[in-house]
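Still learning. Any example?
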Amino acid sequence: MNNHARNPVDGDLAPDAAMFLHLVERLMATQPELTPVQAGILVAAREDIARDSRTFARLFGMAHAIVLRELNALVQSGDLLTVTKRDARTLRTHYLPTTGRARPDNADLPPHSPAG
C-alpha cells in the first residue's frame, strides 16, 4: 500500500490532511480544468485512500450525488480514471487512476519521504 498521504508518525490510517491538500493543489496547478473535487478523487485514488465513490463521499463528508457527478465528468474526459465496477442498486462506483495526462503521480508532483 502507498503511504504517501497517510500519517506515518502515529500509524494512524486516516489521511494526512496537509499532504492530501498539497497533492490536490499541485494537481490543480498542472491541470487547471479540474475542479477541487475531481482533483481530490484522483489523488485519493492514487494514494489508495478511496477508490470508490461511497468511500470518498464518506471520508470527505460529501453527498454521494456530488461525488458521482464529478466522477462521471472525470470518466467522460476519457483518460483520467477507469471504472472497474458499478453497483446498480447503491450507485457505488469503483475506479482506478489511469496513466492519462492528469495522473496525479506524474513527475511534476513533489517527491515524498516518510517523516522521521
About this structure: The first helix runs from residue 17 to 30. The CA atoms of residues 35 and 52 lie 18 Å apart.
